[in-house]
Design brief:
Elements: H1 2-9, H2 63-75, H3 88-104, H4 110-129, H5 131-140, H6 152-159, H7 165-181, H8 188-194, H9 198-213, H10 226-234, E1 253-257, E2 263-268, H11 273-284
Antiparallel strand pairs: 1-2
Helix pairs in contact: 2-3, 2-4, 3-4, 4-7, 4-8, 6-7, 7-9
Amino acid sequence: MLEIDQALDNESDGPVKLLRRSDEMTVWADGPASEEDGDGPNHRVAWPAPGFGAKLSVDPFNAAHLELAASAAEQGTPTEMEPEDMGLADWLASARELAQAARSSEDRTRGALYGAIGRAWDFALAAGKAPEDFQELIADAGLTVQDRAPMTPVVKLVFGADYDKTRLTEYAAALSHAQRNGIARGSLASYLLAAPGGLKGVVQAERQLRKAAEGRAVERREAPREALARKLRNLPTRAFAELASHGSEFALLIARRLPSGEIVLLGEVPEDVPLLERATRRLLD
């Protein structure tokens, strides 16, 4: 304050000579420097660094909660609320929660994805019972319902309109398949898990059924596509002794029947349980 007063009172144009008090104040009575943990009045306190902007030590997306939510969806039981108490907005919020879990979780699993699709079907069932509320949600999101793809707005509301278009189409096909087969609420996730080929198998089956219902010819090939057949013919033959002795109990092998009638081994298909199950069902039929 003394220095400021001197500067204001000085009327000369030359440099101002500022006087400094010999008893310059370095502490105040109740200030932080008054803590008696240093070496005197000139002791400086080490202040902590600010915490804002720092990287979180805990993932804000609670993985345990997401795993619980996905498990609940597979079992058909909404989290935290009884199904009878849930409105359409509650079903949508629950489906979006599981969709975010499947989309954002680092340890993304097929069960989490199927749980989200299953909850999307639960939301579709709830929408059928509240068509006016559903139309309001559709309008607010700027979406439209087309007769040829009635489930597309449902998956867009759940997974987001900016989600991968191919995946949205597949999820919508799975919901259409659930509608065609009368899948009960809370059952689609387990249905997808048990279906031959999983989600891909259900989508393919739904597309075949849709073609048949529309009177379009369903392609039934008796041989692989020629491009694949050429590659198979070019593969070297192998002996059974060349196959790895370790691995799963059951294996899927591809063989070739030569024009001479001799059957030769081409190789072992990498482990694919849904594919093995689908082939096994054909074998057992």
